Amino acid sequence: MRPTRPTSRAETFPVNTPAAAQVFTTVLTQGPLARLEVARRVGLSPAAVTKAVRPLIEAGYLMEDVDEESRPALGRPANLVRVDGGRALFVGVKVTGDEIIGVLTDLCCRIRVARHVPLADRAPKVVLASIAELVHDLLAAADGLQAPVLGLGVAVSGDVGRGEGTVRYSPFLDWRDVPLAELATTTTGLPVTVDNDVRALTVAEQWFGAGAGLSDFAVVTVGAGIGCGLVVHGRVVAGAHGVAGEIGHVTVDPAGPLCHCGNRGCVEAIAGEAAVVRQIQEATGVQLADAAQALAMAREGVPGAREVYARAGEAIGRGIATVANLLGPERVIISGEGLAAYDLFAEHIRAAFTAAAFGSAAQCDVQTRPLPFEEWARGAAATAIQSFVRADS
């Protein structure tokens, strides 16, 4: 394994109080903002905001610009505080069953470089070697950007303990109890954050996407599995055992197909890509290579194929309604590679959600966010940014 060069320089975030971290996070996720507006949003005095902002400006993490557009009739224009995205860089890596996707982002989580590497073997040693090689290439790409790389985020599907950095169980990789953060830190020389891939995508939406500024929302991912990330009172929820949000294994049809988890009629057993392919094969008698072929068959109007997608949409809609009924989120964001079939099941998701949502829960704003696969790696980078900024994350 070729050794990976360490970060450009060891560096820690120049704040040591929760208030300062809150001020920076607010500007990062909702800025640029005037100082008075920052004070209003975080519930601090203007003097406290000024105290928090000063060391961040001195260290180059924040900048102030004159807001010419809001110049009052008399007096000076307001100064807007914003994050200097080029001040630091981060690497995000998403590990799938057959490839590793890596991105280099700036501090505002904007992708600067993206790489895809095929994965021939899922053994932890092989995956770690591939991660190290990929990170090495991204660090080389970072050389021309004149900013230090300050963290690495790794996203993996399954039961992942972010606090200890361990992949407890990943069905797609067939991993159990792999101390991934420790191993990746050793092989890359970077501080490493490891998280479940759906929670990582949820962090990216919370800080840099459709959930920015919201206190309570959910991200539902549709694809090989059906995942759900939850934000409650401004924090991504993992639950006591790290599996909060598993709507893929909510039973929506007790007489439905058997799920790999051992239960019947789970959302994933009806709407996951493998389930859709299997059901279309059963309905048509045609052997299918993959989900893309299943989708093409449905769009061609082959009898039985569209009905499978309709049932998938109904299952997803009922799963989303369960989330809305339990938590009352302001917004549910639907994403994932399965959105390629959105035209076939959108109306069924909406109808099932409306029918199953109780009372005002039906007012939840349900949005779709078709995202390229690099966004999963960007989610991993977002967790690294979050860990760098907030020691309690």
Automatic annotation (TrEMBL):
CDD domains: ASKHA_ATPase_ROK_CYANR. Belongs to the ROK (NagC/XylR) family. This is ROK family transcriptional regulator. InterPro entries: ATPase_NBD, ROK, ROK_cs, WH-like_DNA-bd_sf, WH_DNA-bd_sf. Gene3D superfamilies: 3.30.420.40, Winged helix-like DNA-binding domain superfamily/Winged helix DNA-binding domain.
